[in-house]
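Practice problem 4.
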């Protein structure tokens, strides 16, 4: 079983919730639609604009949208080797 990708701010580690919302900002080319940007990997479902940056609701900093997606932390090498040892 594979662990799910984790989504959190690359600057402060804040995790957005299912209820977190962003605006497709009209000031820089968007349409004003409000949605959870992580539901669509940064593509506005209304106008199809691909957002390259995302602002954190906690620290207020912008980061490249793709940097919000994190693979689960792999187990430490020693633990994997220990689990793979066969009885003598």
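Answer key:
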């Amino acid at each position: 079983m594979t662990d799910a990708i984790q989504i959190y701010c690359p600057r402060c580690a804040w995790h957005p919730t299912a209820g977190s919302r962003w605006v497709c900002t009209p000031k820089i080319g968007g349409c004003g639609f409000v949605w959870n940007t992580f539901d669509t990997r940064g593509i506005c479902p209304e106008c199809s604009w691909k957002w390259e940056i995302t602002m954190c609701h906690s620290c207020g900093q912008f980061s490249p949208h793709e940097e919000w997606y994190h693979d689960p932390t792999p187990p430490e090498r020693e633990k994997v080797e220990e689990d793979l040892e066969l009885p003598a």
